[in-house]
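Lecture notes, part 5. Sequence design as translation. It can be helpful to think of inverse folding as translation between two languages: the language of shapes and the language of residues. The source text, in C-alpha cells, appears below.
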C-alpha cells in the first residue's frame, strides 16, 4: 500500500467513525426513551457500517465500497429527518454533510485501486 493509499484509508476510516459518533449522539439524544431504548436505536443504526471501519482503516476497497453504498441510505435518512422534523434541522444538516464527506472519501479509496484494463 502506498503512502497516498494509507493516508486516504485513514481519512476514510476517520470520516466513517466521525459519522457514526455523530449519528449515535444525535439519535441517543433525539430518541424518546418510551418508544425504543436509545441504546438499541443507536446499535441498529451502527450495525451496517461499524464492522467495516477497521477494514477501511487497513485499506480494504470492498469495505469502502460497502460503506459508500450504505452511506447513500444514511444520507436519505438525514434528508427525510431534515424535511420531516424541523426540531432536528441542525442535527440532520450536520449528518448530511458528514455523510457526504464519508461517501466521498470512501469512493476516493476505491478509486485508488489497481488500474483496471478492459
Amino acid at each position: 500500500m502506498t503512502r497516498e493509499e494509507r493516508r486516504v484509508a485513514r481519512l476514510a476510516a476517520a470520516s466513517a467513525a466521525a459519522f457514526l459518533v455523530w449519528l449515535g449522539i444525535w439519535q441517543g439524544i433525539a430518541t424518546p426513551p418510551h418508544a425504543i431504548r436509545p441504546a438499541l436505536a443507536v446499535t441498529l443504526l451502527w450495525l451496517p457500517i461499524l464492522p467495516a471501519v477497521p477494514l477501511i482503516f487497513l485499506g480494504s476497497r470492498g469495505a469502502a465500497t460497502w460503506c459508500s453504498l450504505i452511506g447513500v441510505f444514511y444520507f436519505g435518512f438525514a434528508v427525510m429527518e431534515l424535511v420531516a422534523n424541523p426540531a432536528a434541522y441542525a442535527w440532520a444538516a450536520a449528518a448530511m454533510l458528514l455523510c457526504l464527506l464519508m461517501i466521498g472519501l470512501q469512493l476516493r479509496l476505491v478509486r485508488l485501486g489497481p488500474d483496471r484494463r478492459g
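The translated text above is only one of many valid answers, since several sequences can fold into similar shapes. The CA atoms of residues 37 and 118 lie 51 Å apart.
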